[in-house]
Amino acid sequence: MAGKHPRNLAGLQAALRCGVKTRSGEPCRAPAIAGALRCRMHGGKGSGAPNGNRNAQKHGAYSKRVRNLRAARQAFEKAMRVMIEQLDSFS
């Protein structure tokens, strides 16, 4: 498949490199994405789901409001257990 035509690699060779430290300790040698400091493998294109992706909607199970509700429920259950133990001790 390799043709005999000369390849223009000047732009690729002049591109800014990613520079993330790999597991071997060496910097990544892949070219950074245009307008970013990282390559496509290390998050240069952006992270997360595309806009409008319904699979990426947040469910709210870890929101502050739900955490407070959960803590209040646990405190209530603990108080009820203590009360039941006290009532059992009267018997």
Provide structural commentary:
The chain is mainly alpha-helical and 91 residues long. The chain has helices spanning 10-14, 64-90.
- Using only CA atoms, what is the Rg? 29 Å
Content-based structural category: mainly alpha
Helices and strands, in order, run as: HH
Strand content: under 5%
User: Segments where pLDDT lies below 50 for 5+ residues?
Assistant: none
Protein name: Glucans biosynthesis protein
Region (Disordered): 44-63
InterPro entries: Putative_zinc-bd (IPR047675)
List the helices and strands and how they pair.
Blueprint: H1 10-14, H2 64-90
Label this structure with key terms.
91 residues, mainly alpha, 2 domains, 35% helix
What's this entry about, in short?
The protein is mostly helical and 91 residues long.
